[in-house]
Amino acid sequence: MDCSDGEVARSTKQFSKYGVEMDFMAHLISHPLMNFSFWLTYMQMDKYNSTIITILFLIFGCTELISRNIIDISIYQMKKEGSGRPLLPFYKYLFNQLSCYPNIALFLSIFIILDIGHIIDSEYILYVLFSTHLGSTANLYIKTLVKYYKSK
Q1: Rounded to an integer, what is the distance from CA 20 to the centroid of its chain?
Q2: Nearest alpha-carbon partner for 27 in 60, 57, 87, 69
Q3: Residue pair 137/144 in contact by the 8 Å Cβ criterion
Q4: How far apart are CA 152 and CA 140, in angstroms?
Q5: Dihedral of CA 145/20/62/49: which sign?
Q6: Neighbours of 115 (CB within 10 A)
Q7: How many CA within 13 A on the CB side of residue 75?
Q8: Model confidence over 22-60: pLDDT tens digits?
Q9: CA of 31: how far to CAs of 12, 43, 48, 131, in Å?
Q10: Which of 43, 117, 132, 137 has its CB 3.0 to 4.6 Å from that of 99, i.e. a possible disulfide?
Q11: Terminal-to-terminal C-alpha distance of the chain
Q12: Rounded Cα distance, 27 and 65, in Å
């Protein structure tokens, strides 16, 4: 549902301040819960090193909240300045979509199901998702800092 609410609002051209605030609150609540449920699933599989999995998901949760806040601040700033979102090349757009929540949750769910069915080993996919998310968040953070310091 999280992936479709914005699409429906854009296609029907019906936006509200309430809808934006509810979407933000839903992210603050559902994303940490998704992260917790993935962690709990890996713990219950009892297949991987629990310490490494726990550290990964703790960092995952922290970086997701950091990136969410940076994105929200950037959107607020663009609205204040009256500028729109810059168009990204397709490969950057695709990377951004694959390395952020809730899209990570969509892909990881499929891989976990395949792992439970003994079809694949999802630990390595988790490492790739973690690395891309961490790299994307670090890149976003650095760009935001550079933009901030250049504006002063």
Answers
A1: 17
A2: 69
A3: no
A4: 19
A5: negative
A6: 21
A7: 8
A8: 777 777 788 888 889 999 999 999 899 999 999 999 998
A9: 26, 18, 23, 18
A10: 132
A11: 40
A12: 9
HSE-up of residue 109 (Cα within 13 Å, Cβ side) = 10
If you count them, how many residues does the chain have? 152
Of 123, 132, 99, nearest to 48 by C-alpha is 123
Per-residue pLDDT, averaged over 76-98, amounts to 71
User: CA 18 to CA 40: how far, in whole Å?
Assistant: 33
Q: Using a CB cutoff of 8 Å and minimum separation of 24, what contacts does 67-74 make?
A: 67/100, 67/133, 67/136, 67/137, 67/140, 67/141, 68/27, 68/28, 68/31, 68/101, 70/137, 70/140, 70/141, 70/144, 71/140, 72/24, 73/144, 74/144
Report the C-alpha gap between 96 and 41 in whole angstroms.
Answer: 25
